[in-house]
Write a structure and sequence with these properties.
Layout lengths: L6 H4 L5 H13 L6 E2 L11 H11 L14 H15 L9 E4 L2 H12 L5 E6 L3 H10 L2 E6 L10 H5 L6 E6 L12 H14 L2 E5 L23 E6 L12 E4 L2 H11 L8 H11 L3 H25 L2 E2 L7 E5 L7 H12 L1 E2 L1 E2 L10 E5 L4 H14 L2
Parallel strand pairs: 1-11, 3-4, 3-5, 5-6, 6-7
Antiparallel strand pairs: 2-8, 7-8, 9-10, 10-13, 12-13
Length: 387
């Protein structure tokens, strides 16, 4: 007997990194281990107070029951206070904040709440592949919009406005941008908000990288009129070194939070209470936590710049976030070619930019989630392989 997968899965492929990690595992069985500079999973631990809170709360006999779907009040308040302190955005913790089991699930929740067959959603090229897969799974149609280096990796909203947008319900944006490290500016934010209002489009802003190598963290919600058209996702994965803890948040207008909660409440039974208390502790850390973290990432980025110089790549030193995005030399057909060469000759894995969309084909991306010594070893391996 053969059971066919549902139609919604037929256009959804296995995640690129899932397949590549299998290849790397196989290579690790046959010789020198591969240095993986591809995935943005923080290698540093959370603050000790965060781990201590988890331990203390988990030791209590009263913290192991099912939790509410909206998260505990202490966590929602910590999230709202964090937004006020670092973004100058005022949120009602009872109605405008929804804790998530990682912000990635929020991408799916939003798509499943608002999209269906016949609808369209705008997604960036290049951009985070999960936007594409979530829209596909919702049954809606993907409409790509181009991001190009010549325009600072910002969408050309004037060009978009010339298209038929009558079926577009939402638009995925992500700044600081992954994979390019581009930031928004006040002028663009105002134009984006006006564009969304004019075309009745919900802007879904994915904002997990704003604290990494960024002097002034920004939220789209801090710009005038944004709350009318913007839902924002945020996360503790990168800013608090808690990727495996799976703690994220959705913030925005109360009506939208309530609608997304209708879907989410059918998908899980709440987050472990000690984990929520630990997340609240992480959100209460002062600026020195982020400063110390960025000092480490800044030193690592200098090593990545050395590695990219060795490969003949060009890059913008002002980019922010957890990755470095670089243009490959013209001698290579695309980023996949350079990535495979380095992987097989030097046993160093670098992400090809094409996995983020066709506009990334001429680029590669390197994660900062390795120790400086590891980057130096990667540099040495590449030098040796090229002699």
């Amino acid at each position: 007997m053969q059971i066919q997968v549902a139609k919604r899965l037929q256009g959804t492929e296995e995640y690129y990194f899932s397949k590549k990690l299998r290849e790397i595992d196989e290579m690790n069985q046959t010789g020198t281990r591969v240095i993986n500079l591809g995935i943005g999973s923080p290698d540093l631990p959370p603050h000790p107070s965060v781990v201590a809170t988890l331990h203390e709360q988990a030791a209590l006999s009263t913290t192991h029951a099912y939790q509410g779907y909206k998260g505990i009040p202490a966590l929602r308040k910590a999230m709202a206070d964090w937004y006020q302190r670092y973004y100058q955005v005022t949120l009602n913790p009872d109605t405008e904040v929804l804790p998530l089991i990682g912000s990635k699930e929020g991408i799916m929740h939003i798509c499943m709440t608002y999209l269906q067959e016949g609808d369209e959603a705008l997604i960036p090229n290049p951009g985070y592949p999960t936007y594409r897969s979530a829209v596909n799974l919702s049954g809606a149609t993907i409409v790509e919009y181009d991001l190009e280096e010549a325009n600072g990796w910002l969408p050309d909203l004037d060009a978009l406005a010339q298209k038929d947008l009558s079926r577009v319900k939402l638009m995925w944006v992500n700044y600081p941008h992954m994979p390019t490290g581009a930031k928004v500016n006040k002028e663009f934010a105002a134009k984006l908000i006006a564009f969304a209002k004019q075309h009745n489009i919900l802007i879904c802003h994915d904002n997990p990288y704003s604290f990494i190598l960024n002097e002034q963290p920004e939220s789209l919600l801090q710009f005038e009129g944004a709350k009318d058209v913007v839902l924002e996702l945020n996360s503790l994965s990168k800013s608090s070194n808690m990727a495996g803890w799976r703690v994220g948040m959705l913030v925005g207008k109360a009506a939208w939070i309530s609608e997304v909660l209708r879907f989410k409440s059918n998908m899980d039974s709440g987050m472990f209470q000690p984990l929520q208390m630990a997340a609240a502790t992480a959100l209460q850390l002062d600026k020195s936590w982020y400063d110390d973290l960025n000092k480490i990432y800044r030193a690592r980025r200098e090593k990545v710049f050395q590695l990219l110089d060795l490969l003949g790549c060009t890059y913008d030193k002002n980019q922010v976030g957890m990755f470095v995005w670089a243009k490959i030399p013209a001698i290579y057909a695309d980023g996949y070619t350079l990535s495979d060469e380095v992987l097989h000759n030097a046993r160093v894995f670098i992400t090809p930019g094409g996995i983020f969309g066709s506009n990334g084909n001429g680029y590669i991306r390197i994660s900062l989630c390795q120790d400086e010594k590891v980057f130096q070893e990667a540099i040495d391996r590449i030098k040796t392989a090229r002699q």
